[in-house]
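Hi all, a correction to my earlier message: I attached the wrong file for HNH nuclease domain-containing protein. Here's the right sequence:
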Amino acid sequence: MTALPPATEVAHLLIDGPTSTPFSAYRTIVLPAEKAALSKGNKANLIHVRIVGYLLLHPPSQAARRTLSLEIVACGRTNLNERHEAVFDLGAMYLRHFICIFRKSRGKTPTPSSHPSRPSFDRAMEECRQDLQRTPRNHTNAKASALVRDNYRCMVTGVPDLDAMSLNLTSPTPDGNFARKRVVPPLYSWLSESLIEWKSLQEHEAATVWTILNRFGYEDISAELGSAAQGANLHRLENILTLDAKIHHLFNTLRMWFEAVEGQPNCYNIELAPNMARPFFIPRRVQFVSHHPELPLPSPRYLEVHAACCRIAHMSGAADYLDLIYRHMEELKVLANNGASADVLSFALHRRLAVAEPV
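and the right structure:
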């Protein structure tokens, strides 16, 4: 977790011509709220205010900065104590409805089998050959189409899929390495899980996510994935990466993301969490290539939002905070008497209410 920089150091980021609202909001509202959180020793609120601050400094789009500036200014229209609480609440909202849509928790959705049965794999491959689809009907079709698009290999490491290799659908690497588990994750892990269970999801929960994306200037993403509530676009190939298990875990826990290389379409620098040494099997740059002209590559727009979310999560401390919360949610059997489990309880209750049956 990194402290927010002084206003004088970031003025060049926040002052755009005659528009100084973002700079004023940062200097007079966000920084004092950070100071208040520090003085009270409230780690959760400190993370929340730093989410707001870093989202303002490093937004995924200029529309996002304008939206957030207005929201911060609205927080400042109350008295001092309420103003700070309003900023904390704003950061908590972005933690739950922006960062958490990319941070996959364990235990809710079973991990695909490491060794799918040969008949099911063959059937999926045959369906894919006969009906290559831009927007597959279901997860099985999406996985098959994505494997064809990506030449049955992890898009980051180039390691081939074991089952595809055994069927002579792809060749082995010189070192003989292969993927023991093949995963094709949607980029929006939370959305995918939630939309599958749309009937049991509180509609306002998902609506908040769509509203954030719209107000951040990503109406196109909402239009493409929003209709997934009816099952139409959930498995679109623009929303799918072919990754082996190790890479999938890093991507879904905000430890790895893709930064677009300017002027080189579908070329990305692979960034890792600041406290993480680069494993030998992860290159610094990757060029995505579709091995079938009818099958589109992952959307740069989707990856752009994911990258912004990862950067903000690490700068604000939210990434480590979520790791701790999810670990405690899985391990704790009883709550601590001294209130140390309050953050875990609050977060767990929020998740429970989010998927509760509508009244």
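Sorry for the mix-up. The chain has 15 helices and five strands.
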